[in-house]
Write a structure and sequence with these properties.
Blueprint: E1 2-4, H1 20-25, E2 31-36, H2 39-53, E3 58-62, H3 70-78, H4 83-88, E4 90-94, H5 98-116, E5 120-124, H6 137-155, E6 161-166, H7 177-184, E7 187-194, E8 197-204, E9 212-215, H8 216-222
Parallel strand pairs: 1-9, 2-6, 2-7, 3-4, 3-5, 5-6
Antiparallel strand pairs: 7-8, 8-9
C-alpha cells in the first residue's frame, strides 16, 4: 500500500503502479467510473479541472448539480495561472430529470464531441437522477441503459470518459443502478473514506492493482483546498 499526498492522482504524474490518469489513457474505449461517498463528485470536478489546466477542453455533464467552480479556480491559482482561461475550457451541461439526462447524453453529446473535440468527458452523478421515485422503475432503467449504451459507443471514438456515482439512499429498481453503470465502464474505482484516510480500490479493470491511500491533508491539496486546522 502507498500513502501519498498531493500528486497521488495528479494528471500526468505517476507515483505508483497506477493512477486515475493512466487508467483513462489505457484503452481506446475507456470509461472510468468512480463510486463511493459524495467525495467522488469533487474528485471528478478536480480531474476535470486538472485536464483543463493541461490545456484540454472538458465536457462536464452534471446530473447531480455537483460542479464546484471554486475547485478548478483554486487549482489554477495554485499553479500560478489566471483561472478564467481554465474555466473557459470547461463546458458545463446540467440535467434535472432523468429524461433530460438521457436526452443530454443520447441525443446531444455526439454533436458536442464533434464541436468541442474535448480531451475528457466527465459525467457527474451518473445514476443520481434515475433514483427519482416519481419515475416508474421500468422507464428509469430503460433510460439509464440508453445512456450506458451511448457512452460505450461514443467512448469507442477515442475520447476518455470519467463518470462518478455517489452511494446513498436508493429507490428500489429491478437491477441495482450501480451495477448497470459498472457493466458499462471499462474500469471501476471504489473510493472509501474512513478515519482520515481515503482509499481507492480497483473493482474492475487491470488486474492486481494495489489499493492507493491518501490522507486528509493530501486530499485537501489535491482539491486545492487549505488543510483543516489540527
Amino acid at each position: 500500500m502507498l500513502v501519498a499526498h498531493y500528486s497521488l492522482l495528479s494528471i500526468g504524474v505517476t507515483v505508483s503502479a497506477w493512477n486515475l490518469e493512466t487508467l483513462l489513457r489505457g484503452r481506446a474505449d475507456r470509461v472510468l467510473l468512480l463510486v463511493g461517498p459524495a467525495l467522488v463528485l469533487d474528485l471528478g470536478t478536480a480531474l476535470a479541472g486538472r485536464a483543463a489546466l493541461g490545456g484540454h477542453r472538458v465536457l462536464y455533464l452534471d446530473g447531480a448539480n455537483a460542479f464546484d467552480p471554486y475547485i478548478p479556480a483554486r487549482l489554477a491559482r495554485e499553479a500560478g495561472l489566471d483561472p478564467r482561461p481554465v474555466l473557459d475550457r470547461l463546458f458545463i451541461s446540467r440535467a434535472f430529470t432523468c429524461h433530460q439526462f438521457e436526452t443530454m447524453v443520447v441525443d446531444r453529446l455526439e454533436a458536442s464531441l464533434r464541436r468541442y473535440r474535448p480531451g475528457l468527458v466527465v459525467i457527474s452523478g451518473w445514476g443520481h437522477l434515475f433514483h427519482d421515485e416519481n419515475v416508474p422503475s421500468g422507464e428509469a432503467m430503460r433510460l439509464l441503459e440508453s445512456t450506458a449504451g451511448a457512452v460505450r459507443r461514443l467512448a469507442a471514438g477515442g475520447t476518455p470518459f470519467l463518470a462518478t456515482h455517489e452511494d446513498g439512499p436508493k429507490v428500489p429498481r429491478p437491477r441495482p443502478i450501480g451495477a448497470c453503470l459498472a457493466q458499462a465502464a471499462t474500469a471501476v474505482i471504489r473510493v472509501d473514506q474512513n478515519e482520515g484516510l481515503i482509499r481507492l480500490t480497483a473493482d474492475k479493470g487491470p488486474a492486481a492493482l494495489p489499493p492507493l491511500l491518501m490522507d486528509e491533508a493530501g486530499l485537501a491539496g489535491w482539491l486545492g483546498r487549505p488543510p483543516r486546522p489540527p
